[in-house]
Amino acid sequence: MSQSQATRPIDLAVIVGSLRAGSFNRMLANALIGLAPAGVSGRIVEIRDLPLYDPDLETAAPDAWTRFRAAIAPADAVLFVTPEYNRSVPAGVKNAIDVGSRPYGKSVWSGKPAAIVSSSPGAISGFGANHHLRQSLVFLDMPTLQQPEAYIAHVDKLLGQDGAITNDATRTFLGNVMTAFATFIDRNRRG
Prior knowledge:
CATH topology: Rossmann fold
CATH architecture: 3-Layer(aba) Sandwich
Largest sheet: 5 strands, parallel
Number of domains: 1
Structural class: alpha/beta
Radius of gyration: 16 Å
Number of helices: 6
Order of helices and strands: HEHEHEHEHEH
Strand order of the largest sheet: 2-1-3-4-5
CATH superfamily: Flavodoxin domain
Number of strands: 5
Shape: globular
């Protein structure tokens, strides 16, 4: 790591897979940003208004695509916080990946370290979404944190009305995830 990287804060873009304003995943994303160690500055990059990716639109790319790409490009790393829809990633996440990966040769994802936290009110905890997303990240050349894995089951029971994590063990675990991710970013970010 260069000296400039060591002193420059980590710019962490956070993608929330659920589009619902009051979603558990949005609350969890905000909690994770709050648990990030010193030197990591997290910000949610919205995906709600991204038109579906259509290569025919590249000649006059929609403003939402341009804003999204510009928001991801300077980030040092990306944290995906996502539910599972039908044993895979929500369509909004996949669309954001497609929008950011195009036009060919100009991907805003390439080389950025990534981590995935999947959650669900159910017991399976978004395992399918987590692993489907990993498959895309391999193709996008995004080194992805392998350990600790973060599958959060019964997320509805772990968050208060204000979005704060109410379970001490979960808060400690997710703090450890964020610390491990910060170390991983330091080892893998380009610059």
